[in-house]
Amino acid sequence: MKTQILAAIGETELQPAAALNAALAANDRLKYAFSLLQMAVDHAGHPKQEAETLKRDRVACGIDDPTLDATVAGARMAGASCRVPGAAAIMARIAGDMRVMAAPVLATKGDGMRVRVEGVLGVLPPATCSIPRPSPP
């Protein structure tokens, strides 16, 4: 948001710093999203155990979506896959935050890095699919 405001008013010297701050915030949101998904898969495999919400983490990283607090408890196994409530929105958040996190690098590294970022985004599971349960170590 700050980056867009700075661009709109023509401020260019502060744009890299704002993009870096936005990338750091996106990194925090990504850590939360991946933790949420991991906990959902774990809970789906052990549904009798109490489910955590990660609410404190969600609030700390600035995500104002309390529906995410029920994600872990609502995860269920469906064969060898895990169905996670709100998976489409979570995957969209992950893709968006990955782009925000990459923006400062893309501003200086050009198209080669853009191809790498899009390659990583291309292997994210589709928002409508279920998450495969990982094999035990």
Describe the structure.
This protein has helices at residues 2-8, 15-45, 55-60, 71-74, 87-109, 111-122; strands at residues 76-78, 81-83, 131-132. With 137 residues, it is mostly helical. The protein has a three-stranded antiparallel β-sheet, covered by helices on one side.
Strand content: 5-15%
Q: Number of helical segments?
A: 6
Overall geometry comes to globular
Number of β-strand runs: 3
Largest sheet: 3 strands, antiparallel
Instruction: Please trace the helix and strand order, writing H or E for each element.
Output: HHHHEEHHE
Taking strands numbered 1, 2, ... along the chain, how are they ordered across the largest sheet? 1-2-3
From the alpha-carbon coordinates, what is the Rg to the nearest angstrom?
Answer: 17 Å
Regions with little confidence, pLDDT below 50 for 5+ residues: none
